[in-house]
Design brief:
Elements: H1 3-25, E1 28-31, E2 34-37, H2 38-59, H3 61-80
Antiparallel strand pairs: 1-2
């Protein structure tokens, strides 16, 4: 079996999967009269969320202690399983 046959077989197998993923990830969403890609909106939203969470963690001591206690409880629960 030559490499070109293997390459074609792999390509034929993954082409439908890649096509579906491409349609989902690069779906156009109309925002304020412009078409934006769904992945762009998701990345911007995730960035804003993470910046807000890290800012709260750094600048709000009471939230910081709650997060630490929640993480400790979660880790303890995992150890007890």
């Amino acid at each position: 079996m030559s490499y070109s046959n293997i390459d074609a077989a792999i390509n034929d197998f993954f082409e439908p999967i890649a096509g579906i993923a491409n349609k989902i990830v690069f779906f156009n969403v109309p925002v304020a009269g412009a078409d934006l890609k769904l992945i762009l909106l998701w990345l911007v939203g995730a960035g804003v969320f993470l910046v807000a969470m890290f800012a709260l963690y750094l600048f709000a001591p009471e939230i910081k202690s709650e997060i630490k206690s929640d993480v400790k409880k979660y880790v303890q629960a995992l150890k007890n399983k």
